[in-house]
Amino acid sequence: MNKQSGFTLLELVIAIAIFALLGLASWRLFDGVVRTQQGTGQHERDIRALQRAVGVIERDVWQTVADSVVLAPGHLQLQRSHWRNPLDQARSERQAVSYRLEGAVLWRDSVGEGSTLMQRQKLLDDVRGLGWRVFDRQRGWHRETAGGSAPLALELVVSAGRFEQVRRVLLLPEALP
């Protein structure tokens, strides 16, 4: 009696088919994880860009000089103090700052008091909408500043990237006790 040991052709084909199905399932799982990670990474970058832009605006608003906020349609202008001076240069601590939307980019323009050098900073890309409002005791919320009443708060509403609408209300120094 001659007994042969080994696998039949049918057994090999079934084993290869099972191995191929496991490989395909593993590849699909890996591909899904990579795509999710890429989406999460982009979302994180978008959130950080938005946080950075709002942080710059908050810093400027919190250091606003009294009665210096000028709000016109699509444009915010203010004067801030406590301008950082890491090089200890001889200059004023006051700085005129304006925010404007140009195309789909939010820009911050600043110039130091007594200087002619304008600094332009790109704050945020892919901006679809930008709105500003100020609050004062006499008129409530409105889209333009008016003489005679100092605004107490500033509202920023921005639509950028994958964020439909982000609203931030910032107190001005006049509102703080």
Condensed summary:
With 177 residues, this protein is of the alpha+beta class. It has one helix at 9-62; strands at 70-72, 75-80, 95-102, 105-112, 118-124, 127-136, 140-142, 153-160, 163-171.
Describe the 3D structure.
It is a single chain. The protein is of the alpha+beta class and 177 residues long. It has one domain (42-175). Helices cover 31% and strands 35% of the residues. It has one helix and nine strands. It has a five-stranded antiparallel β-sheet with strand order 1-2-3-4-5, with helices on one face. Strands 7-6-8-9 form a four-stranded antiparallel β-sheet, covered by helices on one side. A hairpin with a 2-residue loop joins strand 1 and strand 2. It is elongated and about 110 Å long. The mean pLDDT is 85. It is found in: Cell inner membrane. The chain crosses the membrane at residues 7-30. InterPro entries: N_methyl_site, Pilin-like, T2SS_protein-GspJ, T2SS_protein_J.
Which descriptors would you attach to this protein?
T2SS_protein_J; membrane; four-stranded antiparallel beta sheet; Type II secretion system protein J; methylation; 35% strand; 177 residues; five-stranded antiparallel beta sheet
Topology readout:
Elements: H1 9-62, E1 70-72, E2 75-80, E3 95-102, E4 105-112, E5 118-124, E6 127-136, E7 140-142, E8 153-160, E9 163-171
Antiparallel strand pairs: 1-2, 2-3, 3-4, 4-5, 6-7, 6-8, 8-9
GO biological process, one term: protein secretion by the type II secretion system
Keywords: Cell inner membrane, Cell membrane, Membrane, Methylation, Transmembrane, Transmembrane helix
InterPro entries: N_methyl_site, Pilin-like, T2SS_protein-GspJ, T2SS_protein_J
